[in-house]
Design goal:
Elements (H helix, E strand, L loop, with lengths): L1 H24 L3 E3 L5 E3 H13 L14 H8 L2 H21 L8 E5 L6 E2 L1 H6 L9 H9 L4 E2 L1 H13 L2 E9 L3 H11 L6 E5 L8 H14 L3 E7 L13 E4 L9
Parallel strand pairs: 3-6, 3-8, 6-7, 8-9
Antiparallel strand pairs: 1-2, 4-5
Helix pairs in contact: 4-7
The structure holds 2-acetamido-2-deoxy-beta-D-glucopyranose.
């Protein structure tokens, strides 16, 4: 009985705090659970930080009050600097931790969306992560091949080509988007990869993480040594088998499990 009451009380507290949080949204300033008075920017900055730390997972939309903050971040110099730093660390890892084999079996894995190609132009027109994802409209946009190149990633891409490392593009994009994906990549300057691996029909019921781990497993059994992965989603870098090192680019816009 006491336990039941305890559970009831806990649920009551959760409901109470969430309704208070909703009420606070209306004000420019918010109060944290400990009573600290903070600005909306503090609140949204901490939300973004905890997304990147992977403490916040599985969100379907950005908290409504942070949509304009995230829109600002994704189009800011800070986003560029953060991304460039990720790529610089990849290049540093290659130069310090990796001795390339003469058998040409070294490999690197890239995501596509918001790793090589930016989907920010799409999200700009579609609520900037504040609306639930409409797969049909995103795929319509993808099939127009309008993704813009992320220049920082192109630097790493071309560096890997010069080193003779095999580049694998592993994406949750579906197989029917293969031809617009290739056109888009080549058009903005990405070419010379070893293989582009998309989600076939048999992969559609798998999670992105499960699908990508399976791809890595196949690459390893084909004798490849995966020196690194760079992606904007945790599902691209978590799970086993992994790579020598993994690198996470910033992307608070959406979450892919
Ligand atoms: C999703 O996008 C498609 C294509 O733009 C549109 O026809 C459809 O109404 C949208 N669905 C929702 C639920 O908004």
């Amino acid at each position: 009985m006491a336990r039941k009451l305890g559970i009831f009380f806990a649920i009551f507290c959760i409901l109470l705090t969430s309704s208070l949080a909703d009420w606070n949204i209306l004000k420019e300033y918010k109060t944290t659970n400990s009573g600290l008075k903070i600005s909306l920017k503090n609140y949204c900055e901490s939300w973004r930080m905890n997304v990147e730390l992977h403490n916040i997972k599985d969100y379907v939309v950005i908290p409504q009050e942070c949509v304009s903050y995230i829109a600002k971040y994704m189009t800011s110099t800070q986003y560029k600097v953060d991304s460039e730093r990720t790529i610089d660390e990849c290049i540093f890892h290659l130069s310090t931790n990796c001795i390339l084999g003469k058998d040409r079996k070294d490999a690197w894995i890239f995501d596509i969306d918001d790793t090589l190609l930016s989907t920010v132009p799409y999200y700009k027109q579609n609520g900037f992560g504040g609306n639930k994802l409409n797969v049909t409209s995103l795929e319509d946009w993808i099939s127009q091949g309008k993704g813009t190149a992320l220049d920082h990633s192109m630097k790493l891409f071309n560096h890997l080509k010069e080193l003779g490392v095999n580049i694998f593009l592993v994406s949750s994009r579906k197989e029917h988007l293969r031809s617009p994906t290739i056109d888009n990549l080549v058009h903005v300057g990405f070419y010379g990869w070893t293989s582009l691996i998309l989600r076939g029909q048999e992969d559609e019921c798998k999670s992105a993480q499960g699908f990508k781990a399976e791809v890595r497993s196949k690459l390893i059994s084909n004798g490849y040594r995966i020196l690194g992965i760079v992606g904007d989603q945790w599902s691209s870098i978590e799970g086993l088998p992994s790579a020598k090192r993994t690198f996470k680019l910033p992307n608070p816009l959406y979450y892919v499990a």
